[in-house]
Known about the structure:
Largest sheet: 6 strands, parallel
Radius of gyration: 22 Å
CATH class of the largest domain: Alpha Beta
Number of helices: 11
Strand content: 5-15%
Shape: globular
Order of helices and strands: EEHEHEHEHHEHEHHEHEHEEH
CATH superfamily of the largest domain: NAD(P)-binding Rossmann-like Domain
CATH architecture of the largest domain: 3-Layer(aba) Sandwich
Distance between the termini: 18 Å
Structural class: alpha/beta
Helix content: 25-40%
Strand order of the largest sheet: 7-6-8-9-10-11
CATH topology of the largest domain: Rossmann fold
Low-confidence stretches: none
Amino acid sequence: MKVHILDDWFDTLRGLPCFARLAxxxxxxxxxxxxxxxxxxxxxxxxxxxxxxxxxxxVTAELMARLPQLxxxxxxxxxxxxxxxxxxxxxxxxxxNLHADTPSYAAAExxxxxxxxxxxQLPAQMASLQAGGWQMGVGKTLRGRTIGLYGYGRIGxxxxxYAEAFGMQVQWWSSEDGRARAAxxxxxxxxxxxxxxxxxxxxxxxxRLKPETRGVIxxxxxxxxxxxxxxxxxxxxxxxxxxxxxxxxxxxHPGMAAVDVFDSEPLTDADDPLLxxxxxxxxxxxxxxxxxxxxxxxxxxxxQINAYAEGAPINMINPEIxxxxxx
Length: 327
């Protein structure tokens, strides 16, 4: 099959063990990012199987209508960036392993790194040292403090394990169903939404971005946090009401934020007011960007291509189209 891989910015995949699974296919790797549908359509005019790097490129009805040879989109995890009805209408099979029992340990580890960086002022302490200023302030010990985890899912539970190892108290907030599951598992659920934000030294968000969770964290939630508290988001920027985090930081509640996700990505505007905020620690959406995570994810993605080529597709999201040939 003619396989195209989009958005492999550092040409990483060729060097991973999983890439050998594409032997026998005609593979093209694109290392830049393109938003223009016309340019993408020209590049992908002969594509039969399209591999996506998570949500870096949106696959719209407009784009699919220009790709007459496309038969398969192979990716991993959730797919809010893909127009599934358009896939079905165009006879394109979407395959995506949702890895129900496997958290992203890479994302959980980055979350913990950001928590440590924020509580111990690591970027500011490093900048002070490099400028000849030695120490610039006093950080906070994690032991004995309270971390609030919003979202009772796989990554959140992994982060909870790290927190407990550091001697922190863990409290939870989530949907009504998530809170019920947490309580049934013997976890501490906050008495209420306001108490969750107001009583946590650290709040870390671990939710999937869906229509019902978009903007679920409002300005009033953030400003309920104390002036010495830390807000962490390694999930999706869209979970927070647009503009709310910047407004809250300007108001001093919470006192600091550490985020790996932004409303516009890739964010390359060095003057962006949130990115430039003195009380923000930012990383460029690297929660899942490790060699180990890539080999795991793309091993699944390449297995889906081979299964399709062998006539036995797996992890089908729109299985109703399997069989008919696209005219």
